[in-house]
Amino acid sequence: MNQTKLGSFIEACINVLIGFTINFCANLLILPYFGFHELTLSTNFKIGLAFTVVSVTRSYVIRRWFNARLHQAAIKLSGGRGS
Question: What mean pLDDT do residues 57-77 have?
């Protein structure tokens, strides 16, 4: 069974939202150790948001690519009879 494009998008968004939350908190703890002492919550949020857009796009494209590849593999295994 193939995942719909909307389903792929929702899955990617939930995955990235969880990752964003973890990374936002981690950045507050880790970045000061690397000299980023002037980072405000707002700046940290904006940086995280930019990477989140990239991550959602990446997750969605990869999910759709794998979904298509799995569908093609299923057709080949069934003797070439696609739906």
Answer: 80
